[in-house]
């Protein structure tokens, strides 16, 4: 499955219907959660689903929502219960599922009740049953059969449609090349061919502006119109930060998948690493986990391979002052993950630092260019 994210531009009337649908879905979720809590034995999903027609007669407002959407609310509830049970089985301390509050932001059209209408103009239309035809900005071609549409409202007040498709895998042409990648804090990553990608540090660069907006929000009366305007302004700053970071990670991961058949990386336990409070924020800001996730699913779709190796000892014996530390670590990762000759370390390229802006603009230098080298012992 692959998901496309497109912005929606609902009219005032359509937004009222979207918000009403969200509220009805939230109420339905909480209603069935209370029924489960009151039962001595957890009923099956199909048992509760069979109660929906009766519930609609008792509460006519539920008829304003497409039937499959309400069924997916139950599906979501049972998925959450299964996830909780799995955590408990693995020895984790878990409580009970919480009732949904204002943070309930999504509802789902599964298999039916939606239709994408092409207009040939800047904005196409997404027909949603019981809501209408909403203008949508489809900025890229949708490849594959559409299976479901998730409608999501962000804290900034923007609406998006997440189009989930069953995609036919397209094999990328083989390059016959392998590479090792070492992620870090000073540089986002260094690879075994001498590239050092600058860490964007989006969080640090926007933190000052976010703090200003937060201070302004704290001075407003909570719940007032001015408070709400400032809350949306702050949410947009955070949203921009996430979008910038995701754009960078998508483009960088795509570069490696398009240019290499085998990509060797460390099998990092990021959850354990962030327990170091001195490094936690820097690690989370770098988003290594998200980058490795993007790399893995892009490689799978392209018929390429991501090999995860044990990270222990990849920097053994290397001083932090050693300029080639990260490069040598990347070579060791490659040698661990793939049958690569030890002679890799004899060819030591002068690391070339690549700005994150070059990555975003697609200017990461081509593999046809040879990296400059120096001899070393």
List the defining traits of the structure above.
disordered C terminus, about 375 residues, about 45% helix, 11 helices, single chain, seven-stranded antiparallel sheet, alpha+beta, six-stranded mixed sheet
List the topology elements:
Blueprint lengths: L1 E7 L3 H27 L6 H5 L2 H7 L8 H23 L16 E5 L3 E4 L6 E5 L3 E6 L7 E9 L5 E8 L11 E6 L3 E5 L3 E4 L3 H17 L6 H35 L2 E5 L3 H4 L3 H10 L1 H15 L2 E5 L15 H13 L9 E3 L2 E3 L1 H5 L12 E3 L2
Parallel strand pairs: 8-11, 10-14, 11-12
Antiparallel strand pairs: 1-5, 1-7, 2-6, 3-4, 4-5, 6-7, 8-9, 9-10, 13-15
Helix content: 40-55%
Task: Give the terminus-to-terminus CA distance.
Answer: 48 Å
Overall mean pLDDT: 85
| Percent range for β-strand residues | 15-25%
Secondary structure: number of strands:
15
Query: Mind describing the biggest β-sheet?
Result: 7 strands, antiparallel
Radius of gyration over alpha carbons?
A: 25 Å
- The arrangement of helices and strands along the chain is EHHHHEEEEEEEEEHHEHHHEHEEHE
Number of domains: 2
């Amino acid at each position: 499955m692959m998901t496309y994210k497109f912005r929606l531009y609902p009219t005032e009337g359509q937004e009222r219907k979207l918000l009403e649908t969200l509220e009805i879905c939230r109420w339905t979720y909480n209603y069935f959660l209370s029924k489960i809590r009151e039962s001595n034995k957890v009923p099956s999903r199909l048992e509760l689903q069979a109660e929906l027609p009766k519930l609609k007669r008792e509460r006519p407002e539920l008829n304003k929502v497409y039937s499959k959407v309400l069924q997916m609310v139950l599906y979501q509830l049972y998925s959450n219960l299964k996830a909780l049970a799995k955590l408990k089985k693995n020895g984790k301390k878990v409580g009970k599922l919480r009732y949904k509050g204002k943070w309930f932001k999504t509802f789902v059209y599964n298999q039916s009740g939606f239709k994408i209408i092409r207009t040939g103009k800047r904005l196409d239309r997404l027909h949603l049953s019981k809501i209408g035809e909403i203008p949508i900005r489809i900025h890229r071609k949708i490849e594959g059969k559409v299976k479901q549409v998730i409608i999501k409202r962000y804290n900034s007040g923007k609406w998006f449609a997440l189009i989930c498709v069953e995609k036919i895998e397209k094999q990328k042409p083989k390059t016959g090349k392998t590479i090792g990648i070492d992620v870090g804090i000073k540089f986002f990553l260094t690879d075994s061919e001498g590239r050092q990608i600058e860490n964007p540090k989006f969080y640090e660069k926007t933190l000052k502006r976010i703090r200003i907006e937060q201070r302004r929000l704290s001075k407003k009366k909570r719940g007032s119109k001015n408070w709400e305007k400032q809350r949306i302004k702050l949410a947009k700053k955070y949203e921009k930060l996430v979008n910038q970071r995701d754009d960078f990670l998508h483009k960088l991961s795509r570069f490696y998948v398009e240019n290499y058949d085998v990509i060797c990386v460390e099998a990092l336990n990021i959850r354990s690493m962030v327990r170091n409070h001195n490094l936690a924020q820097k690690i989370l800001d770098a988003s290594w986990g998200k980058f490795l996730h993007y790399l893995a699913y892009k490689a799978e779709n392209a018929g390429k391979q991501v090999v995860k190796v044990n990270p222990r000892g990849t920097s053994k014996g290397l001083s932090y002052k050693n300029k080639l530390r990260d490069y040598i670590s990347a070579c060791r990762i490659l040698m661990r993950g793939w049958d690569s000759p030890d002679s890799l370390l004899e060819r030591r390229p002068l690391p070339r630092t690549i700005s994150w802006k070059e990555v975003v603009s697609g200017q990461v230098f081509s593999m046809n260019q040879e990296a400059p080298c120096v001899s070393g012992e």
